[in-house]
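Good morning C.,

I know you're traveling, so I'll keep this short. The sequence:
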Amino acid sequence: MSSSRNAPLHGIRVLDLTRVLAGPWCTQNLADLGADVIKIERPGAGDDTRGWGPPYLKGEDGESTSEAAYYLSANRNKRSVTLDISTERGAELVRALARGSDILVENFKVGGLKKYGLDYDSLRQENPALIYCSITGFGQTGPYAKRPGYDFMIQGMGGLMSVTGEPDGAPGAGPQKAGVAVADLMTGMYATVGILAALQERHRSGLGQHVDMALLDCQVAMMANQNMNYLTTGQAPRRMGNAHPNLVPYQVFESSDGHLIIAVGNDTQFAACCAVLGRPELAQDARFARNADRVGNRDALIAILAPAVKQKARDHWLGALEAAGVPAGPINTLADVYEDPQVRARGLRQELPHPAAGVAPTVASPLRLSDTPVQYRNAPPLLGQHTEEVLRDVLGLAEEEIRVLAGKG
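The tokens, ready to paste straight into the viewer:
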């Protein structure tokens, strides 16, 4: 739908002093919503993830560029400026950018920016309206505040790996991390929410504030029902493989030619599922009639259902279960995902012009706004691609001074 309305964050400037994933994921959200995100990177090196390859983006000639796929996942719609904040002039220029920014996002170690005058207490003296978001492993307070924190270790410390993987005693049992950096990603999402809340509050007070985001906090918070399973019983949940602690049947089943997921969410769906599987009487069985009964008699029920599912092919069951209104689905590879008709219809694969490769693939934002949609303006920038542009147009530096700065690195 076309609209004359500006993007939601049109006119908002974000100074991005983050690297790797949690911070860049947050600032990519803000950029997608129309903010002008200026990404500050180290000269010659840039964001750590620029080197996290292979794989790398391929150019028009089929040869790999220097742009790592990992970096491309979280830096769309931004401008890249290379400044060495360890130098007096570099730090001074970043402070000047902060004075003209609405939001600053950083993921340095606690206290790491103070010596450059780029900490919250210093910058709020110069820009009281600045919303300053810090993303760290453990937050700005507490005994672990100064420790570095990476997603993998946080998945372990925050409880996720205690409930992910095959049950103890089963083949392949043991702690297992998620296949993507969920602690980083959820922290990036929570940080986005916190920043937007502070931005909304600023409309009333005219003042910014410090948003303190910790990977550990976010990992613990996202344990959701598993948190409450523990807090209401005092018993720590354990790994259950692909089964669900509170719903049955809600797991992977093996068919005659592959696997599928059956996700029964209520008693009506269970009755429909039993009918499809040729065992309608199970819905009247006192052991299985209600979900609470099924959870208590999980092993007995699965011992009946699993052999039934194995009698026919995956696609047979998927079609029959869908027709009966029972949630079920395949286990797709990413190659399958991008061929899925629903994924294609929703336009989840996008392409953006890229200065080194001609074009770069990207994944559409899941944010769908009817009248001010996400804008796909620019591919993730080359290192320092916009340095001159920003120093000239935002800070008003003369061309000669920019050349002198470049000469000094």
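Safe travels,
E.
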